[in-house]
């Protein structure tokens, strides 16, 4: 199937999912297509997926959103650099310890619904500047299925907005 036809079909499925108009068969087809698109975009970005891992949980899109991160030492406010349904990264003034747990509140843009709230674990950090700023990556530890689905819908909205076909 031609890529532009596949994308047109996916966009239609995605819009039906957004409106909750799927039959159970369409929902299964949509989730399979969403995974396929995420795998393709991960490969295009040069990322390799671990065997058995969900591409949808690992596929990140660049998006700046307010996030409040609460460590034992102090709460911090930042903006995300990128986001997936499995985690996010942001800039922080210092590097928390790898593996450290924190609470977070993620404010989704343009949504009047409650923010995504949960716990996350620090999985990586890297210096960004000489002033001590760090790019810190988090994986979600405790996020409801409903919030994860809200994140995935937003992530695929953003991804589809970047794709011209």
From TrEMBL:
It comes from the Bacteria. Residues 56-156 form the PilZ domain. InterPro entries: PilZ_domain. This is PilZ domain-containing protein. It comes from Archangium lansingense. The lineage of its organism: Bacteria, Pseudomonadati, Myxococcota, Myxococcia, Myxococcales.
């Amino acid at each position: 199937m031609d890529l532009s036809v596949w994308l047109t079909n996916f966009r239609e499925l995605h819009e039906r999912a957004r409106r909750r108009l799927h039959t159970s068969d369409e929902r299964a087809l949509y989730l399979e297509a969403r995974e396929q698109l995420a795998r393709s975009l991960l490969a295009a970005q040069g990322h390799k997926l671990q065997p058995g891992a969900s591409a949808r949980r690992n596929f990140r899109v660049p998006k700046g959103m307010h996030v409040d991160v609460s460590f034992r030492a102090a709460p911090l406010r930042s903006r995300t650099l990128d986001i997936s349904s499995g985690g996010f990264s942001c800039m922080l003034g210092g590097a928390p310890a790898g593996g450290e747990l924190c609470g977070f509140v993620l404010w989704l843009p343009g949504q009047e619904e409650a923010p995504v709230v949960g716990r996350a674990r620090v999985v990586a950090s890297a210096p960004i500047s000489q002033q001590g700023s760090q790019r810190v990556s988090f994986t979600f530890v405790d996020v409801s299925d409903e919030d994860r689905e809200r994140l995935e819908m937003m992530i695929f909205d953003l991804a589809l907005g970047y794709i011209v076909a």
